[in-house]
Amino acid sequence: MRWNNKYLPFLGLIVVYIIGAVKIDIMDIDAAQYASIGREMADNGQFLEVQFRGKDYYLDKPPLLFWLSALVFKVIGISNFSYRLIPILSTLLGMYALYRFCKLYYSERTAYIAALVMGSCQAFFLMNHDVRCDTLLTNCVMVSIWQVAEYVKNLNWKHFVTGFVFAGLAMLAKGPISLIVIGAAFFVDFALKRQWKQLFDWRWLLGLPIIGLVLLPYCIGLYRQYGSDGLYFYFWEQSFGRITGESEWDNSPGLFFQSHNFLWSFLPWVLAFIPGLVTRVRDIIKQRFLLLVADEAISVGGFVLPFMALSTAQYQLPHYTFVVFPLAAVLTARFLDKLIEHPETASFRWTRLGLIVTSCVMLIAIVGLCFWAFPLQNIPLLIVAVLFLVLIVRLYSGKRPGFSQLVFAPFLTGLGINLLMNAHFYPSLLKYQAGSVIGQKVAEDYAANVPDFYIYELAPADEYNIFHSALDYYTQRTTPVLRSLNEVKQHFKPKGTLIYTDEQGLKSLNTAGLRFKEVHKVQNFHVTGLTLPFLNPALRATETHPRYLLMAD
């Protein structure tokens, strides 16, 4: 590849990220809830005391995403893109930080590969449209690791301060898990180099007040809302309590839950990462757990120990380990760069075969999603997809340079597939998220009726039968929930009242003789919990349930 074209792959990543940011509606539950909290914060100006639907309720996550979202909403307004803007920018910063970190220990090419791997793995495409706290957490952690590594190399205090500022921001993004990753990374590195003076250097304690200053506004807000219980929850129970068993959250995920999820979330690089990790651990064992000062074990320590710890938690979701994926990219890039120099070896051929198999599996999956589950009828997009396929096949050719076969071909596989996902599959899927569909319908066609718009829900408040967050986000209002016919009658205005409800609510209104007409009907499905029957067009109707927008007659 000519060096003056080195930025083109990153431009491709940005384009695909932005297409997802614009075309995909905000997904229930988590992303829509976080976006709605940011929208509410922008309205009420309560930045220190996080509120959800008008109540001092939301303790579960720190506020960095809410703060940044609220600021963006105030500047450029509320939209799909505005909620995702800062997370996308943070990802670009995270890729740059990974590149600079790798250059401290490896070649320019290894650093370049690592940045490509990080930006094009499935988890990062997902994190930049289904935006949760993990996007900011992951990228802040990577910047912190880079800056602390710079300090260890050069003893420049500006890197020390920046490193701990970003460690504090990472804690503001999702809590103490950030310090676990950063601490594990450098603990393993210092221990394997026998740098005990570095490990126990008193100057590390100077980082604590820096983190404390970053956290101070949030801690003030926590104490004002919840007292000492809020501080205990944030600093201990939220993260460590899920490992020790103190937290009430428990979904019994099993010891290999995160390992299974890694197989899809690190596509298309997973079959290059596994031998990369094994090779790195084998090399450390061969060196009798003693590394040279010029080497690094930050990546292996920062990946393995937190991944193992998170895998033992009593409550887990697939995105919990995304924070260590940049370090997995380092291990992958280190392995691939060595293979590129020796295309005649069996390791090169087996890795190439593994990447080809991975690409084929991904291509088969995207064909199923975009030509069976939701048939693609956009001709220009179809032409682009065919061009990607032709180019990928050509790059995997044995006559191409090793870099093309082991890096560019799988990179373009991930890029092309997620172009189709972001431009076609997810927008098609989100037509079955009734909250966002109805919310946009009300905002566009019934703006005058928004003050008299209500949710009518008969299910208990803690059952999440009718999700509220996407609806609130797109109507830019906390929609009141009515839970009885008496409440509906109190707010009934002929030709004015709008009701969003399900089949149970519709039946209740009809039985009571209240005059409502159906103005919109949507088949609803919880889109983040995909099932094969739902993806099957012939069976989809068995998995969906109608939601109604009603107007008083």
From TrEMBL:
Coiled coil: none annotated. Pfam families: PMT_2. Its main location: membrane. Residues 60-215 form the Glycosyltransferase RgtA/B/C/D-like domain. It is found in: Cell membrane. Keywords: Cell membrane, Glycosyltransferase, Membrane, Transferase, Transmembrane, Transmembrane helix. InterPro entries: LipidA_mod_glycosyltrf_83 (IPR050297), RgtA/B/C-like (IPR038731). It is a multi-pass membrane protein. The chain crosses the membrane at residues 7-24, 65-98, 110-127, 164-192, 204-223, 262-278, 290-311, 317-333, 353-374, 380-397, 406-426. PANTHER family: MANNOSYLTRANSFERASE YKCB-RELATED, UNDECAPRENYL PHOSPHATE-ALPHA-4-AMINO-4-DEOXY-L-ARABINOSE ARABINOSYL TRANSFERASE. This is Glycosyltransferase family 39 protein. It comes from Runella salmonicolor.
